[in-house]
Design a protein that fits this description.
The protein is of the alpha+beta class and 201 residues long. It is 46% helix and 12% strand. Helix 5 packs across helix 7. Bound molecules: zinc ion.
């Protein structure tokens, strides 16, 4: 006859096994249904990035200022005042960032001429994204300060995110992860000539 203690032990073991089984089952469903979302579940670096757990070693925008425009640096254009670059962790294809060269976190400290130049690039960027990616709308905005959601609050940047009808799913809301129909490099190569043309013109 089994003792009370051993019965408890067996019940506990069964509970643990059931939990492990249901976790494995859930992961398999995730992989089958959302194969492209696997990075979120299997790439701890990305998870740590979206949870803002990665230590910031240097300012990525100041690094962008030093870099040459390329698919590697994600810099589309540097006109000597402003940088337009692709977001490495986009919410949608063609998610761009318009960044002043100066490492400045407060909009009131920004030079008026630089601010005007940022607006000019916002306008141009919208036009290029519309022409090249055929998007139907945009989200444009600045998260000013860490409490407002700025990932890099010390270096101001303007987001421009192209939108298409029906492009939303629940994933960005719960996991800050998005399925992208093309790679960053593919989008970069399509957009870059149009940005280069703007400075030559
Ligand atoms: Zn900076």
């Amino acid at each position: 006859m089994k003792t009370k203690a051993s019965k408890r032990k067996v019940a506990k073991k069964a509970k643990v096994a059931a939990k492990a089984h249901s976790h494995a089952w859930a992961m398999n469903v995730m992989k089958a249904v959302w194969p492209q979302e696997r990075d979120f579940f299997e790439r701890p670096e990305r998870y740590r990035y979206v949870r803002k757990l990665l230590p910031v070693s240097a300012c990525v925008f100041c690094e962008g200022v030093e870099a040459k425009p390329s698919a590697d640096s994600l810099v589309l254009i540097n006109d000597g005042h402003v940088l337009v670059m692709m977001n490495k962790y986009p919410y949608n294809s063609g998610h761009l960032l318009i960044v002043p060269l100066e490492h400045c976190g407060n909009i009131w400290d920004l030079d008026d001429a630089v601010m005007a130049r940022m607006s000019w690039w916002l306008k141009r960027s919208a036009q290029i994204l519309k022409e090249v990616l055929n998007c139907q709308g945009f989200n444009m905005g600045i998260n000013h300060g860490a409490v407002a959601g700025a990932g890099i609050p010390d270096h101001l940047h303007w987001h421009i995110v192209p939108r298409w009808a029906g492009d939303t799913n629940f994933f960005p809301l719960i996991a800050e992860t998005k399925v992208l129909p093309e790679t960053l490099e593919q989008t970069y190569n399509r957009l870059q000539p149009h940005f280069a043309k703007q400075v030559k013109a």
